[in-house]
Design goal:
This is Basement membrane-specific heparan sulfate proteoglycan core protein. The protein is an all-beta fold. The protein is built from 4 helices and 99 strands.
């Protein structure tokens, strides 16, 4: 038994059943259990049986039952039986514990006596409804009792409420002589009487010499034992049964009618079921024919016969017999069979006891019908490009194979499509290859059928012009023929492409004839051939060679002073259009003049002699010249001319002036940024105000002049150079657009403006007309789809070398306006749009200006994808773009020099100057001008135009622009100088020991101690000691000073003091760099690291303005160090690592006694050393 968690001791069990942990689970002899078993260990009480018991127990009704010893009786064994003779009785087992319901137990009872006794068994129940004493003959479920001599045994089923089994001895007078009991301990339940589940209700049939299984399935509790018996004369004869199955092997006719019974028995009862077998002879059946193939419409017959001519019947597997079928005496006939009659037919005996069947197969083929092919359409004539569908109606059985062919050819033409579903063909885009006979052929194993159709395709006219091109001289006869190569009923006519009329007698039918060709006959002519099926056009260009005729204006000798500017105009006629060039002849020979237009501007010089206009074409050359006569203006007078782009450097050299000279500009003093150089003047950065005549004179009266013209501001594009600009533009909306662009074209074709992505917006010139292309896009489903392409085209031709402004407004509609340079609308277009559409899918993107880059969607051929001319202004959605400054990319774009090209646009209104205006120039009027048009600017115009706001000539933001007569002046901020404030003042300054400069603390912001602090200072000493730099106060400071040959750096931050010293050169320029981080300070002289120290700075308390070269008297300076001012030159001071020097003059807060040159101080330092020696 268990004594702890893991310890046991062994002891003898004083009862029948012990639990290892809980001990005795039964009571001992002479005791009974007073509590239920489910309560755990027993509570044992003494048996109330007067000590005469074999055993006792308590039943479910709380009654104690006594099993008395031999010789005692009564409920409590209180009666002692009289002893006649010695009589002993013994019964085993004495008790039965917890047997399952239905369990069989064998009880043995024996006695010893000289008398002969009868042994009986009785069962006692605790249920009051049952007899308390049931004798052997009344015990249900008793299987057998065996008695031999003085011993008897009984096999008894333990059923519900059984509490004991008694063994009783009776003498010959049936008097009870002795009794003993076996106690049944524990209640038994769930007894079920057997029941056979598959009892046969009809005979079982079997053929002779075949086996037959008889199956008996039964249920019950306990599980019943099922066995088969043969009943013969009311006797049961057991037959072999295995798990309820008996097999009748090789049944014979003499077994016919044998009765078989199944008995299923358990301990509480049994169930019976019987059947009989019928043994039959085997029936032989034949079906003829077993397989039959026929065609639709034939009659078929199947015969079914048996040996003994038993009754049979026919049926169709998976269906019913046709109404055309007849089943009679085993003969099945089907009249006029159809496809639905095909299948398996089954013949079987009418007697269900004999399951004999035979099958026959019927295969029905479709009735063979010769194929037919019919094309109902008649022969047809097509026009080129037509589509025709031809149907072929096909029948036949079996289904024929259908093919199409064209007689005389192996394959059908490539534009013929065959539809095998309905045996049709479709001819698409008919042409001459479709002429011919087409066959539809239907063919099967039993025949062939063909149907034909003849097609004819009338040819479009096709023509050829001979000769293909014509070039003739004036007066020659020219004949051009228009030959018809193909086509019927063709009519030919000639017309001129330009729509200009020509003499009717020139064109006669197929011939274009010029008896005596003239230059007016030149042009392109087209021959148009037509017939009922279409038309064809061919073009020929007739070129007439005519020598150029040249007229020049002025047409006579021109008298002019040196330095004057004159324009020459050349009027040229000729065919083809002549190419114009200009030359200038003089003492230096002949040289070409810039420009290829019909005008040229010339500045008169003393060596000029002749200006010539040269016109050339294929017919020859024509020239016209103007002689230039130089007027004598006096002694030593000569003039030169120079053009310079804005911002460039210009030198004006006067080699002829031998003596010192003084110069003026336009009869006034120089602007101020012109510098005298040897034999001339120099301007570092030319601006618009430098335009004018510069006159230089010597004391002896020798004089020379220079006319300087500044050009620039406007972008010029060239088709030859493939120039263009890419400008990033952000749009306000993808549904609206506003564009304003100003341009001057030198060609009739070219791209002006284009949105790069998908070419959704394109503005270009085509044959002299302005065209705008816009896409309307549907992107509602997330996919880009162009719903409509809009083209707006000007009705009037735009002139070459004339400024135009184009305004495009896209809202619910699109409007286009074209203005000339006077603001007059010369053309307008209007078109409605599809509502709720966008014209692009992206607000941001690149716009191409003046040219494209091979975009495939561009509506121009590659040669016309570039613009020839000038584009001065672009405004998109209200924003005016600075094309050059905001460009993302620029290629081969030059400057458009408006005032020097062709005709002077100002004329007598003023002096023309290139400027960043809408048309690329302004007219500057003199102070005494009597008349000032609106386009003029300047003091003399008395107009509201502000030249300073327009031209913005001053470089620095703090500069102030002042308008003077025909010029501008810039007032520069500190640190800058020059006429346009373009020159930054010197970085270096001299110190005399009493001066200093104070810089704002932003140069040493010290946002974080971790950020490196780099200071580089270049200086030359002028004395032994001196303060170079100081920031902070006496407690926290940064200090740099020199002491003879030593440079000292001191950094004090709270309690940490770091001091470094480096050697320097006394009579040379020194460059010292200090690099301080939070834990390291380095000092370098030149390129060499001189000293390095380590320290740790947690915070930075050094702040305030930075003193250079000295300190003010009120500075809180540490008394430990010398505060004497620096004498010498500080050349440069750099804070940070970007090498950007500090402009002290432009950035200081306070300057005190500073000099602008270092040479004097350095020289005094050298002198000092000499004195010391």
């Amino acid at each position: 038994m268990k004594t702890g968690e893991d310890s046991f001791i062994c002891a003898e069990c004083p009862c029948d059943f012990c639990d290892p942990e809980r001990g005795c689970m039964d009571c001992g002899k002479g005791e009974y259990r007073d509590n239920p078993k489910s309560d755990g260990p027993p509570v044992c009480l003494k048996c109330p049986c007067n000590d005469n018991e074999e055993a006792c127990m308590k039943d479910e009704y709380n009654m104690v039952l006594c099993s008395c010893k031999m010789g005692y009786s009564g409920i409590n064994c209180e009666n002692e039986l009289a002893q006649r003779t010695h009589l002993g009785i013994k019964m085993t087992p004495t008790n039965v514990i917890s047997k399952e319901a239905g369990s069989l137990v064998i009880f043995n009872c024996s006695y010893n006596s000289t008398e002969t006794m009868t042994i009986e068994f009785e069962r006692k129940y605790g249920n009051q409804q049952k007899d308390s004493n049931q004798k052997l003959s009344h015990i249900p479920g008793l299987f057998r009792v065996l008695t031999y001599g003085k011993h008897s045994s009984a096999e008894i089923a333990i059923d519900e409420d059984l509490v004991s089994v008694d063994c009783v001895l009776r003498d010959s007078q049936s008097t009870e002589r002795a009794r003993t009991s076996a106690l049944i301990m524990g209640t038994v339940t769930n007894l079920v009487i057997p029941q056979i589940k598959n009892c046969y209700n009809e005979p079982k049939y079997v053929n002779v010499n075949e086996d037959l299984e008889l199956i008996c399935e039964a249920s019950g509790s306990p599980v019943p034992d099922a066995k088969w018996y043969i009943i013969e004369n009311e006797n049961y004869k057991y037959v072999d049964t295995v798990e309820g199955v008996h097999v009748v092997t090789k049944a014979q006719l003499d077994q016919n009618g044998t009765i078989y019974m199944c008995i299923a028995r358990n301990s509480i009862g049994d169930d019976k079921c019987s059947t009989h077998i019928i043994v039959k002879e085997r029936c032989l059946m034949t079906v003829s024919p077993p397989y039959l193939e026929v065609e639709e419409g034939e009659d078929v017959q199947f015969d079914c016969a048996t040996v003994n001519r038993k009754s049979v019947m026919w049926k169709k597997q998976g269906g019913f017999l046709s109404y055309r079928a007849n089943d009679s005496n085993g003969e099945l006939t089907i009249k006029n069979v159809s496809i639905s009659d095909a299948g398996q037919y089954e013949c079987s005996l009418v007697d269900p006891s004999e399951p004999v069947t035979k099958t026959a197969t019927l295969v029905v083929h479709l009735k063979k019908i010769p194929p037919t092919a019919v094309i109902k359409q008649g022969d047809s004539t097509l026009r080129p490009g037509d589509t025709l569908r031809i149907n072929c109606i096909v029948s036949g059985q079996p289904k024929p194979n259908v093919t199409w062919s064209k007689i005389g050819e192996i394959f059908l033409p490539t534009n013929v499509e065959v539809d095998e579903r309905d045996h049709s063909i479709t001819i698409k885009d008919a042409n001459k290859i479709n002429n011919g006979i087409y066959e539809c052929t239907a063919e099967s194993a039993i025949g062939k059928s063909t149907s034909r159709i003849h097609l004819k395709v009338s040819a479009l006219p096709r023509i050829r012009i001979e000769p293909k091109s014509v070039t003739a001289n004036v007066g020659e006869m020219v004949v051009v023929n228009c030959l018809v190569v193909e086509g019927e009923s063709v009519n030919t006519t000639w017309s001129r492409i330009s729509d200009s009329p020509f003499e009717k007698n020139i064109a006669t039918g197929k011939e274009l004839r010029f008896q005596s060709i003239s230059s007016s006959d030149a042009g392109k002519f087209e021959c148009k051939a037509t017939n009922p099926y279409g038309h064809a056009v061919e073009v020929v260009e007739v070129m007439v060679r005519q020598l150029p005729s040249v007229k020049i204006n002025p047409d006579g000798p021109l008298s002019a002073f040196v330095g004057e500017i004159h324009d020459f105009y050349c009027n040229v006629t000729g065919s083809p259009t002549p190419r114009i060039s200009w030359t200038l002849s003089g003492k230096q020979g002949t040289k070409p003049l810039p420009g290829t237009g019909n005008s040229v501007r010339v500045v008169v010089t003393e060596d000029m002699g002749k200006v010539t206009c040269l016109a050339e074409n294929e017919a020859g050359t024509g020239t016209k010249s103007v002689d230039i006569i130089i007027k004598d203006e006096g002694k030593g007078s000569s003039a030169k001319y120079k053009r310079a782009p804005i911002g460039s450097r210009v030198e004006m050299i006067f080699d002829e002036l031998n003596d010192p000279f003084n110069c003026t500009r336009s009869q006034s003093s120089l602007i101020g940024d012109e510098c005298y150089i040897k034999n001339g003047l120099e301007i570092q950065s030319v601006q618009v105000q430098h335009n004018g005549t510069y006159i230089c004179k010597t004391a002896s009266g020798q004089e020379m002049s220079y006319f300087l013209q500044v050009v620039g501001f406007v972008n010029k594009f060239s088709r030859l150079n493939g120039s263009y600009i890419i400008l990033p533009i952000t749009l306000k909306s993808t549904k609206t657009l506003s564009v304003e662009v100003t341009f001057k074209t030198e060609s009739t074709r070219g791209l002006i403006l284009m949105k790069r992505k998908h070419c959704d917006f394109v503005m270009y010139l085509l044959n002299g007309r302005l065209v705008v292309k816009l896409n309307q896009i549907d992107s509602t489903n997330g996919r880009r789809k162009v719903s409509k392409v809009i083209h707006l085209k000007s009705t009037k031709l735009l002139k070459i070398n004339v400024w135009y402004t184009v305004v495009l407004e896209l809202r619910d509609s699109v409007e286009l306006y074209i203005h000339d340079e006077h603001g007059t609308i010369v053309d307008s277009q209007y078109m409605t749009l599809i509502p709720n559409m966008t014209w692009t899918t992206n607000n941001e993107g690149d716009f191409f200006i003046g040219g494209g880059t091979g975009e495939k969607r561009l509506p121009l051929p590659p040669k016309d994808a570039y613009f020839d001319g000038c584009i001065s202004r672009l405004i998109v959605d209200g924003h005016e773009y600075k094309i050059t400054e905001e460009a993302k990319y620029s290629r081969n774009v030059t400057l458009c020099n408006v005032c020097s090209d062709n005709i002077d646009p100002c004329g007598d209104e003023g002096v023309c100057l290139d400027a960043p205006t809408q048309y690329g120039y302004i007219c500057v009027c003199g102070k005494n001008a009597n008349y000032c048009p609106e386009s003029c600017m300047g003091i003399g115009c008395r107009s509201s135009h502000d030249m300073c706001s327009l031209l913005k000539p001053c470089h620095q933001q703090e500069s102030k622009c002042v308008s003077l007569t025909s010029s501008l002046q810039c007032q520069c901020p500190a640190g800058f100088e020059g006429h346009t404030c373009e020159t930054e003042l010197l970085y270096e300054f001299s110190f005399d020991g009493n001066g200093y400069a104070k810089l704002p603390h932003r140069y040493l912001p010290r946002h974080s101690i971790k950020n490196p602090e780099v200071i580089t200072i270049e200086f030359t000493q002028g004395s032994d000691t001196g303060l170079l730099l100081f920031q902070g106060d006496r407690n926290n400071f940064l200090l740099m000073f020199v002491d003879n040959d030593d440079f000292t750096y001191v950094y004090k931050n709270q309690e940490v003091v770091l001091e470094l010293t480096a050697d320097i050169k006394t009579m040379s320029k020194n460059s010292v760099t200090i690099r301080r981080m939070n834990n390291t300070v380095e000092i370098s002289v030149g390129d060499s690291l001189f000293e390095e120290k380590k320290s740790e700075f947690r915070t930075n308390r050094v702040h305030g303005d930075i003193f250079i070269g000295g300190i003010s008297p009120t500075t809180d300076f540490p008394i430990k160090y010398n505060s004497e001012g620096f004498k010498g030159c500080i050349h440069s001071l750099v804070f940070g690592s970007d090498d950007e020097r500090v402009n002290i003059m432009a950035n200081d807060i306070t300057r005190h006694k500073l000099g602008k040159t270092c040479e004097a101080q350095v020289a005094r330092r050298y002198d000092t050393y000499e004195d010391d020696d």
